[in-house]
Amino acid sequence: MKIDGQRSYSVGRDVLWPILSDPVTVGRLLPGCEVFEPVAPDLYRLVADIRLGRAVTRVAGAVSVTRIDPYRSLAFLAQGQSPNAPAECRGRIELKDAGDGAATL
Question: Can you tell me the distance from the alpha carbon of 5 to that of 35, in angstroms, rounded to the nearest whole number?
Fold first, then answer.
């Protein structure tokens, strides 16, 4: 499954990057997230309820953040285990200037 999209904000990358770098804030932003806590530099423990269609399943595992280009982009790999099967998700987040002090995520 591929999830793709973008959203513009009326604040710049200098405001958005610290939000993406704060595990407490990231944990509050992730839907269904119960635990998102650092265990090592750029490695986080994750427990979340993930919805796929009508089914909701609990996944526990780790998220590693790699290829960090501060204020511009990062890549992540989330690996975990649900009651029925292993789960894996990888992605890339980019911040781009959108003019007039705004940014696109």
Answer: 25
CA distance 34 to 52: 17
**Prediction pTM value:** 0.87
With a CB cutoff of 8 Å and minimum separation 6, the contacts of 103 are 8, 9, 11, 12, 13, 15, 16, 95, 96, 97
Query: Edge-to-edge, what's the strand order for the sheet holding 8-9?
Result: 8-9, 102-104, 96-99
Q: pLDDT, tens digit, for every residue of 81-103?
A: 999 889 899 999 999 999 999 99
Ordered alpha helix ranges (H), the chain: 13-20, 23-29
User: Which tens digit of pLDDT belongs to each residue from 16-46?
Assistant: 999 999 999 999 999 999 999 999 999 999 9
